Amino acid sequence: MKIVVSEFIWEEGLQILSEQGDVVYNADLWKEDLVRELVDADALVVRNQTRVTREMIRRASRLKVIGRLGVGLDNIDLAAAREAGIPVVYARNANAISVAEYVFAAMLTFARRLEEATAHVKGGGWNRRLYTRMELYGKTLGLIGTGEIGTRLAHRAQAFGMKILGYDPFIPPYEVACTEFGVQLTDLETVLSRADFVSLHVPLNSATRNLINRETLALMKPSAYLINTSRGGVVNEDDLYHALKEGRISGAALDVLVQEPPQDSPLFKLDNVILTPHIAGLTEEAQVKTSVLVAQEVVKILRGEPSSCVVK
Ligand SMILES: NC(=O)c1ccc[n+]([C@@H]2O[C@H](COP(=O)([O-])OP(=O)(O)OC[C@H]3O[C@@H](n4cnc5c(N)ncnc54)[C@H](O)[C@@H]3O)[C@@H](O)[C@H]2O)c1
Ligand SMILES: O=C(O)CC[C@@H](O)C(=O)O
User: Which residues form the D-isomer specific 2-hydroxyacid dehydrogenase catalytic domain (predicted)?
Assistant: First the structure.
């Protein structure tokens, strides 16, 4: 068996794959080189940078499985994989806690400004009034998407005494968790207009692209913050820039951008923006879990066993 891994994977996962076959591991295996390697490959394992295209799938005539070291599947042509009869397995729920904790870090950053206060003190300041900020207790968290990450975030927000509103048109699988964690399910307009923090947890697809745009941003309170850990394309960055610059919302934390890495962006010039390089799911714990889970599921498919992490 030949297993091609085209982006970084933790050692624990690599070990599992190596016991099953010959692993070609190159964390920067791009385009033509990758296509060449795939010609006689049985499995391909990617993260979110490798674009798995219809053409690539067509040329990989021996391919039996695609493993995705993460959750978002927008870099894989799922229709082409389905038509070719190639299952795609992914790391369902493996990084959800890490992302939920990232969202808390962002909310607490906006609420308490510890880094800014530190810089202020180191610069000789001691203005206690300036850093008299707000509690998360009693504030409203608005979840757009209440799946694995949304429900884990709700669990943590409940412990902080936050009110939680959720919008998810495909809720049934997570309805019990939403009830348990105090999520009041409602429509998109209500979530956006009432939330103090709006957090996005939807996949990027044709229905969610530009979901946050001029019109939907206009529904948010001027005191509210937007947190995007889903995918850059879910937010229209130009509309967000203007909303932030004109004070129509208070701030935004963006872990994901339309173009990654970004060349340049007007968002860089704003003080009320937190920007991170797609790290919400990147913790040691989540990456060990992700690598082991995906490696195990890839191996199951190669052995002809059923996997519970196949994309439906
Ligand atoms: N920044 C990171 O490091 C990071 C890490 C993990 C996941 N993600 C992103 O977060 C997304 C969500 O991850 P998850 O594990 O919670 O996935 P999930 O599939 O468990 O949950 C997604 C939820 O979104 C809902 N949804 C789909 N379309 C919707 C729409 N139009 N409006 C509202 N809700 C909609 C689904 O019903 C589902 O409940 C992933 O698709 C991925 O793009 C990013
Ligand atoms: O592949 C990555 O490293 C990003 C992971 C994250 O965005 C996901 O969708 O799980």
Answer: 4-311
- The reply to whether ligand 2 has any atom less than 6 angstroms from the CB of 149 is no
Please work out whether the CB of residue 143 comes within 6 Å of at least one atom of ligand 1.
no
287 in Cβ contact with 10 (< 8 Å): yes
CATH number reported for the structural domain that contains residue 148 in this entry: 3.40.50.720
pLDDT bucket at 131, cuts 50 / 70 / 90: very high
CA distance 166 to 161: 16
Pocket mutation for ligand 2, best pick of 6, 9, 95 (most atoms within 8 Å of C-beta): 95
Ligand 2: nearest atom to the Cα of 90: 10
Q: Is the CB of 231 under 6 A from ligand 2?
A: no
Domain count, the chain: 2
> What does the pLDDT look like over 248-295, one tens digit per residue?
999 999 999 999 999 999 999 999 999 999 999 999 999 999 999 999
Mean pLDDT over the full length of the chain: 97
CB-based contacts of 137: which residues, under 8 Å, 6+ apart?
160, 161, 162
Residue type, 104: F
- Report ipTM for this prediction: 0.99
